[in-house]
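Listing S7. Sequence submitted for prediction.
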Amino acid sequence: MFSRGMSSGAVLALAVAASLMFTLPATAAAKGRILVYSGSTGFRHDSIPKAVESVSALATKAGYTVDATEDPGVFSAEKLAPYKAIVLVSTTTDPKKPESEWFTGERRDALQGFLAAGKGVVGLHAAADSHYHWGWYGRMMGGYFERHPKGTPQATLTVVDAKHPATARLPKTIERVDEWYYYKDLDPTLHVLITVDPKTIGDGEPDANPNALVWYHDFGGGRVFYSGLGHTIESYDEPYVQTLITGALKYAVGR
């Protein structure tokens, strides 16, 4: 491999480079494989391609191997086996059309089995606007989308738990623009991480203050994280959102 005429320093440099060629892929593989799923049959968010790109880049940077797809056929026990976490990116269905839901039959069993194996799910934004005719899904996500104020107004967010890896490096409060979801059937036992103050949205309707926006909980034998942020394309370039997602991935894979 090495030439007799090479200096000891050059030989050492080549040896280190050769070592890295083998150790870097092994390290990435050791961290785990993540599936990013962005199929939708309801309202289609323009931000989905950017979200998939951003999540994939953040996961790769953190040392994970990433696969992205919109094929619901991936939800089988065999195909999910290699993954430690699934990220659902604004995976809407039509609440008026039960037939729009792709988690049926063996696909339901596969998702339930995935969590039962101690793995993790991350839901982003409209992942809560999905599968209204499968109550288990709503319980997994922590609640269902109910409504949102018109447009993408500015609102004030507050971190209420800074001990989680998703929020440990975030500022206590921040003002930012997004589409602000209100939820129904919200699980009262959720560990809420971030809230939004409805008074700052200018919604014009009385509401509980504050409203849960980002949370996590143990569910079905695994870990589930949900963030209501991410309606706009620009969201995924924000350090705030990128930091949140990076921490969510760390939690979901169990590290």
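Caption to Listing S7: primary sequence and predicted structure tokens for the chain studied. The longest helix spans residues 8-31. The two ends are 38 Å apart (CA to CA).
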